[in-house]
Structure formats: structure tokens, C-alpha cells
């Protein structure tokens, strides 16, 4: 027969709110937990029990609530033998007593702890009625009583802070818990004061009932004809609210007759209360008699009483009676009412529409009171916060009033109210109150509380703008050599409606939805309706110049297109003659800056930016150059109007409608606040304001009905080789050895350059060491990522399919090209920024030829190949290394997944396990949910992290 081994269990209370347990003889904590808590339901049978190292020993943690449950209903494990130490047996005895106190509600707030800044509870020892033999307080030593109070306090606070039941609890209940919660909230808000002894404190908490038959309330009455605000004490019967009198602060009855049963208590109670009032607000003390309270207040003191002291009195549970009109007027603020007088006429002037100035009549009101010109001027000069006008008291928000005055002076100086302000208000009005004062705003000036009234013409104009995403369809251009889908027809009509109203717009359809054909159809529509007397200008990346030429030739062969590109391009007069004889001039972003003087010499009918994210940095020379172009209408085409930062959206929207979203400086400040706090109200407000001028449809929108094949995205996780791991650790070691001694800018540079090298190491060691004289076999052995890619590409080609491969490093692209050509024994093309345009066009044409079997692998640098290309011959996309932005990656993948794709598309994303690539992937997953809204990120923020945070994100994880 086996005898059970006996273990002695010891315990000790830690004033962090729990006991720690340990056995003698020692045994592993997890093993002991399985024995001790096998039948303990609150800890889910030991699964939630934690441990803590104290000194050199790992001990079991038993929280206060679990300890109470555990030691009052000891769970039994028949397969183990325990012996409790003498100290634990005392805890077991104390647990039963404590549970009884909680279930009977014999607990109370701890005044001494509250005075020291803590919220604690204790047993109501003085209320114990049992005899000594019934476990009265005398049965416990002072140390036991101290522990019982501390144990109980942690249990009560835990239960109050865990009202939703997030943690498992025992079978016992706390009687009077709601009473404890109410007192807890009051203790949090209340501050210690000299007059607040324990008795008064318990009365204030509502823990004790005042024995007096009446209640006292401090009353402030509105001023008499002499302008004095009177203070008095309202005394009300507890059982009959209609029975009341009013007394002066010195106890004299000034209204009503004092009941005889109140007289013995009333004078002393009023004296005590007024001393309390004066302790809270010293200014209430009578300057001629420090022991008496003022009976009258001037305007300044009345304002302090209303705005500050009353809230303080209430926090101490002191009843306050204020003038009946106070609640209503404290919410009233000055409001500017503007009636727009001049109607809006669409003049076909495009972006000039935003510059129109609207004439208006104005008035100012506060609450229901409309101010006369004389009253308005008087308030501007007054400094008092509380003023009576026409026998009505009102709070004067002087800051808002001065803001209104400054804005009116500005409107008068400039000749009217800018149309963009009228539009912003009109669009935001539908969302309720647009003037949320504490929300970030994208203009230099804070929003005004303003009510705009419009005439019928302006109201109709705004209605058209609100419904602009459902425009009346324009006739399809007769010269269009192709068919428009319904959503594309709507896009053309949207551009036409914007022009009619005098605005520009950004067509931001998802990649592959046919922005090109929509713009060509729109130009044809203009040719057949308006018949412009000047050409349009199209600016695009160099890589897609040829693509645009071919698309014009395909869809609009009758449009006269002039390509302004290359060293032999026309200059000066020859350029002007060629441009004026064309319908469309196409050029690149680089030449928009280099040939700025020539391009700004003409006023264009329309100026369109393709892949408009190229001007996302408003400070670049090419972004500044395109802003100087003059046209009847401006437009932008982009699948990613916002890649990383909110200011990128500002740059595009400022191009299409200059001035609409304020200055870049103010908008940058707004963007930082929104990106930092993800402020939903500000995001929605900005979305509302820009929505009419930005049209975005996505592939999977049910209204689009593209009938595209499926797209499947797969992540391929790869381990580093030992060589890569060593190089990775060396880079981190080098960074952290030098980082503390670097200046701010040097530190930032060191962090960013290290990140770049870590990415390169994840790709292949050769990016740091060079690949000369290394065989293909050796190169494959150095990187598991390269080995996996080679195997997968080989399988793709065996199945007769084609693929494109994206990498952000040119050297990696060259290495991939060499390895894959050797492995596949076929030509592999690599397109990057250094490839001339004619060669790029040839590469794309060869790859897209279905009959061409020997060129089925195309490597592209992410920046060069991520925009404007149609590569539907491929149905596999490999992201060899990860970019920081999901929008950029998706844009690259959509070179394949677009209209014209007939096969299922497979997107493979390579990730090196435990490295910065995996951290990037985790961040991208979080960011994907925000990419359709207004978000901000990028690489720069990593350089601002602390050393500990840097280690967390860069360190090589081993798991």
C-alpha cells in the first residue's frame, strides 16, 4: 500500500493584495498548483493561478478574493496530503470571520486612509455585538485586525473595480455593495479639508444619516436693484419639503417662521455649515468679521460662485440652489448668423470657383436674444463675464465674441466670405453641429459658431454638391472606341458635374477599375459638348508615358495627342505651336519642373495628374511646379490618394481645389493630432468635407460587378540561415553600442540606416557582402528566402504560368535576375528606375505577349512597377520583401489583378520569421483596417523610439 507524502503549506500576506504560498519540502509550483487547486472553480481549477519570484524562490500567488473563497470552502484533493502551517490555520480562521462580515455588510470606509490619499475599507469593529466566545474582535490580536482590514479592503475594491465580472469570483456576496460603489465614487472626487472630520465625512458620503429633522442648502439669489447678489441658507423639513424657511448666514430668519422643534439645533447647525462653506471658498468670508460669512456678493464673486465654487460644494455633497435661469444661460454662446446674398453662378472657371467671395448680411445672437449693433459693440468693450441685457442675464464668452469680430473684420477687408467656408459649413451641417471646439481642425482659425442662411440658388447648388456621386449621366461620347461600364460612365458624369459647378476633383478608383478610359472618355465628352479652344495637359510618371499613348490610340484615335518628352522634345515657340494644334499634351512629372516656364505659358483647358501620389510631398519641386499651372479645371487620378500620411491627401486636394483644406502648416498640425489619437470625429468631419471632390470605388463593391477571378493572398514564413542570423545580430549590436552617444539627427540616421541593412540581410547576405565569384548554388544556400522563391518560380513556369516579382532593392533585383536565369535557362527581365522608357515599353510588350513562352518572369522595383502598368499576362505575384504600406503593396499586386485578368491570381508575401519583416507584417495587419480611412505611419517614427522600444521591434525573436 502506497502512503501519501505529506506536504506542509506556508503562506504570507503581501500588502499588494494577495497571499503567497510555498511548500516544505520544496516542489515545483506548477505541480503543487495542480494539487492545491484541482477543485477550485474561481481559478478555473488552477489554470489562472500565477506565480511570483521572491528572492530565489518561485511562490504561488493567491489573490485576496480567491483566498477568502479557498480558505472558507477548502477544496479537497483525495490524491494528495497537505498540512497547513500554524500561520495558515490562523488565516483560515480569519477567512471565516471576514466572510461573515462581508455577507452581513459590516464594513465601512476608512477615513484615515482617505486622508492619506488612498481609498480603503475596514471592518466596522465597533458594531460587533457577539460575545467574546463568538469570535468577537477581542478574539483577534491587533495584527490580526490589521490584516483583516487590509484583506477586506482589497476584496471590496477589487469587486467595485470589476463590476462587469471580468474575473471569476467566489460563492459569497458583499451585502451593501451598491452603497460601497456610491461612496467610492464620492471619495474619488472629494478632497480633504480642515472642517471634514470623520463624522462629517461619513455624513457627506451618505454612510451615516444626519439626525437633524431638517436639511440645509446654500442659496444664491439674483441681484437686487442695487446690483448685489444675496446669499442665504434654505432650511427644509426632511419629511415635508413644503415646510421651509430662509435664514441669513448669521442665523437670522428672513423668510417664514422657524418651527419650535428646530430652534435648539438650527443656530448651531447654520454656524457649523457656514464655517464649512468658508473653508471651501475663502472669499466667502466677511472681510470685517472673519468668523462670519458674507451676505452679499458683487458681480465678480457671483461669477466665481456660479462657475467654480458651486461645483466644489456639490462635490462635498452640499446642496446648492442657484437662479432658475442659470442652467439655461450657461450653455448659451455667441453665434454669428450670416445670410448669403449673392447667388453662385457656375462660370466654367474650374478651380477659380473656390476663390469666389460671397456677400452676406450678418447679426449676432446669444441664446434666444439677438443683439443690436449697439449691444454688440458694448459687449466687445465689456470685460465682465456675466451681464444683464434687456432684463436677461447672460454669460459672455469674450473669446468667442472676439473671434467673431476678428472674422467679420477679415471678411470686410477681403470683400466677402470665401466660398470654401460656405461649402464646408453646408456639407458639415448634415452631420449635426460641425463646430466641435475641442476637435482638431485643418485651418489656421478655429471654427466659428456660425449659422448660414442661403437663398434658393445657393441651396440648389449645395444639393447638387451633396448628391454629386449620383450625377445625371452625360451622353456617351460618340468617338469613344470602346464600352464604358456603368460605374465608369458615372465617373465621367461626376467629372462633368464638377466642371459645371466650377470645381476640380480626384478620381481615386481602386487599381484596375479603368481610370484611364474614364479620363479619355471625359476628354471626348468635352470635345463633343464644350468644344474647348485650348488643349488639355496630362502629367504622368515616365514609366507609363507609352501606355497612355497606346490607350489614346486605342480608345480615342481621333484625338490629337502630342508627347512632350525626351531630349528631342520641342521648345519655346515650336512647343507652343504644337501644343495649340493638339487636343492633349502628355508629359512627365520631371519635365513639369524642368520645363515649367514653357508649360505655364499656356492656360490649359484641363490639367490632369495621373498617379497623383507623385505630388504627395507638397515641398518637392515637381509638386510646386504643377501647382502653378493654370487651367479651367484640374483633376487627379490615383488609386492611393493616401499612402502614409494625411498631408499627402492635402497635397492632392490642394492641387484640384487650391485653398479648400487650408494651409499646409495648419493641416499638418491637424494631421499630427488625428494620426496620433485616431480622433473619429475629426476623421468623419474631414471625410464629409472632401467627399464631393474625391470619387473612390473598390473592386469588391457589389455595384461594380467586375466578374474578376479570385485573388488569394498567402504569406510564406522563412527562417534565416545561420549566416543571416549572425549578420543580423552584429548590426543590432553595432547600433546599440553607439546609439547613446549620438546627437538627435545622428541617432535618427543611424537607426534608419540599420533598418535598411536589416531588411537587406533578410533578403540575402550578398546585399551587404557582394555576390561576386559566388555560384548560383552558393547564393541559394545563403538565403532560405531566395531558395524558396527559386523553387516556387520554377513550379510556376513548369505549369505554363507567368509571374512578377517585386523587390525594393535594385541589387536584389539584379541578383534575382542572375539566379533565376541560371535556374530556369530563360530570359528574365528586370525593370527599375534606371531603365530608359523605350526599353521599359519593350519589356512590358514582350511580357504581355501570350505567344511568347520564353519570357514568363518579370522582376520590378516596387516604386517603378507599382503604378500605371497592366501586366495581366501573369497570375502570380511575389513580394520578395515587405514595404511599409499595405496600399503600396496592393497597388503593386493590382498590376496583375485588374480588368482583363482571366485567371485566379495568387499573391505570395515572403516574411523572415522573428525579424523586422515579421514586425512590419504585424503592423501592416493592424493598418489594413485603417487604410481606407485616414491614417498615418511610415519608417520615420521608428527612429523616435526609446532604446528599449527599439530593441523590442528590431531584436531577432527566437521561437
TrEMBL record:
InterPro entries: DUF3670, Helicase_ATP-bd, Helicase_C-like, P-loop_NTPase, SNF2-like_sf, SNF2/RAD54-like_C, SNF2_N. The keyword Nucleotide-binding applies. Residues 496-659 form the Helicase ATP-binding domain. It holds the Pfam family Helicase_C. SUPFAM superfamilies: P-loop containing nucleoside triphosphate hydrolases. GO terms for molecular function: ATP binding; helicase activity; hydrolase activity. Residues 788-946 form the Helicase C-terminal domain. Keywords: ATP-binding, Helicase, Hydrolase, Nucleotide-binding. PANTHER family: SNF2/RAD54 HELICASE FAMILY. This is ATP-dependent helicase. It comes from Insulibacter thermoxylanivorax. The lineage of its organism: Bacteria, Bacillati, Bacillota, Bacilli, Bacillales.
